[in-house]
Specification:
heterodimer, A: about 120 residues, mainly beta, 7-stranded mixed beta sheet, 11 strands, B: about 110 residues, 6-stranded mixed beta sheet
Chain lengths: ~120, ~110
């Protein structure tokens, strides 16, 4: 199994630009999560999907952030326009079956730097 | 609001020592508690998941316990090795959502 695949691994862009992060969950997993990790705030859940439907987006910081899951094998997290305070490592995770008692499997993350 | 705290923030031990990492949470209404390992530049790897009805889980040299009533969990690592050096995070999943609430982690260094 290839695991959760995220791209790009690193992204450096200037303030105001649009940023799109991509995630391919593990085949057969029906729940997908987007997290952000910073030194100050640790690991925070931004949004999660179940069966491609957004269930809870209360962690999305602002309207500049949006996430989509057009099918079971692909999700995007978009920031438009980007700001320096968006610099962080963004992780995607997926899990199988019932939401409650299955572990989440994480990708290696996208390290985002906004100049 | 659920809050998860991990103590200590960092720990350095000589190889071979047994050690305990601590995690506490404020709301005892949880479905499960999970321990993860994070290596530098990498994502999180799930180590152990303890369901709310369970008291402990074991995997190899790792043993995690859960005391829901007191809002505490410990991760016990036996006979530590340099390869155990990493950041260990605990996370709780609440009753009403699929969200994981993470602690800030404990960074462990095991010296040869």
């Amino acid at each position: 199994d290839a695991g959760v695949i995220q791209s790009p691994r690193h992204e450096v862009t200037e303030m105001g630009q649009e940023v799109t992060l991509r995630c391919k969950p593990i085949s057969g997993h029906n729940s997908l999560f987007w997290y952000r990790q910073t030194m100050m705030r640790g690991l925070e859940l931004l949004i999660y999907f179940n069966n491609n439907v957004p269930i809870d987006d209360s962690g999305m910081p602002e309207d500049r952030f949006s996430a989509k899951m057009p099918n079971a094998s692909f999700s995007t997290l978009k920031i438009q326009p980007s700001e320096p305070r968006d610099s962080a490592v963004y992780f995607c995770a997926s899990k199988q079956g019932d939401i409650r008692n299955q572990p989440q499997h994480f990708g290696d993350g996208t390290r985002l730097s906004i100049l | 609001k659920q809050e998860v705290t991990q103590i200590p923030a960092a720990l350095s031990v000589p190889e071979g020592e047994n050690l305990v990492l601590n995690c506490s949470f404020t709301d005892s209404a949880i479905y499960n508690l999970q321990w993860f390992r994070q290596d530098p530049g990498k994502g999180l790897t799930s180590l152990l998941l303890i369901q709310s009805s369970q008291r402990e889980q074991t995997s190899g040299r790792l043993n995690a316990s859960l005391d829901k009533s007191s809002g505490r969990s410990t991760l016990y690592i036996a006979a530590s090795q340099p390869g155990d050096s990493a950041t260990y995070l605990c996370a709780v999943q609440g009753s009403n959502t699929g969200k994981l609430i993470f602690g800030q982690g404990t960074t462990l260094q095991v010296k040869p």
